[in-house]
Automatic annotation (TrEMBL):
A Pfam family the protein falls into: Methyltransf_25
CDD domains, alphabetized: AdoMet_MTases (cd02440)
Secretion signal span: none
Protein name: Methyltransferase domain-containing protein
Length: 260
């Protein structure tokens, strides 16, 4: 998994902003929802926050703008490096590191909040890897710290098994682009291969860029069970109509470490 996911996001890093009709507007909108959840759960003051799948900074930059002390890490060193550059261009500090969420290079209890957004957990293709990642998120959280994790609504998607996503048109400073995906479901009905298409203006025409990756369509009950086993309590799902976020959001609180 690690090699293919890293290669995918290393390749996508320069074009990731093209996923959004307006990337900066998406940063602001997503940060408003996540920031409200953080302050409701932990209090109104700024908090120490790790975005452990920061990509090019979509959530991390917005949360830093909201006043939190944010660190970003990502499996892709190319994406993490771009996140730091994009943050600086917008007037905020965002230290970043290349790191696998299953082995985070941070001290126990270093953060009040861990964010794992944008369906990132779904790139871990086994229960063992999911468990390892959630244990690491728990480890780097202070006692009673907050986990914010977002995934696609796989409860519905595993029933319907869509074969594509609608085309998304982006109007960026570097021109228009079109993004869409083709999904090829495995026989187990749980995992699927994505072909990720981007049509980018080139020389008066279009260049087609195709990237491929596999995801695990984890249900909410599966993630709840794994998070509970990893040491999270008060695990709650916030659906789109209630949260305003574009994916279901899981919140959980880090329980006290078990004495040795």
């Amino acid at each position: 998994m690690k090699g293919s996911a890293q290669d995918f996001y290393d390749s996508l890093a320069a074009d990731y902003h093209r996923i959004f009709p307006d990337w900066d507007a998406s940063m602001t909108r997503q940060a408003a929802v996540l920031d409200a959840l953080v302050r409701r759960e932990l209090g109104a003051e700024p908090h120490r926050l790790l975005d452990c799948a920061c990509g090019i900074g979509t959530q991390a930059i917005g949360l830093a703008r909201a006043g939190h002390q944010v660190v970003g890490s990502d499996l892709s060193p190319v994406a993490a490096a771009r996140a730091a550059v994009e943050a600086a261009a917008r007037g905020v500090a965002l230290p970043t590191a290349a790191a696998d969420m299953r082995q985070l290079p941070f001290a126990p209890g270093a953060f009040d909040v861990v964010v794992c957004a944008d369906n990132s957990l779904a790139h871990l293709l086994s229960a063992r890897d999911v468990a390892a990642a959630l244990r690491e998120m728990r480890r780097v959280l202070t006692h009673d710290g907050l986990l914010l994790l977002t995934l696609r609504d796989y409860d519905d998607l595993r029933r319907t098994r869509p074969v594509s996503t609608p085309p998304q048109l982006s109007h960026g400073s570097d021109g228009r682009s079109i993004t869409f995906q083709l999904w090829h479901w495995h026989a187990d009905g749980e995992r699927y291969d994505q072909e990720y298409f981007q049509l980018v203006p080139e020389g008066g025409g279009w260049e087609v860029r195709v990237r491929r990756i596999t995801s695990w369509a984890l249900t909410r009950s599966e993630v709840t069970e794994a998070a509970t086993a990893a040491g999270f309590t008060d695990v709650t799902w916030h659906m789109l109509d209630a949260s305003g976020f574009y994916q279901p959001v899981l919140t959980g609180r880090a329980s006290a470490p078990t004495p040795c």
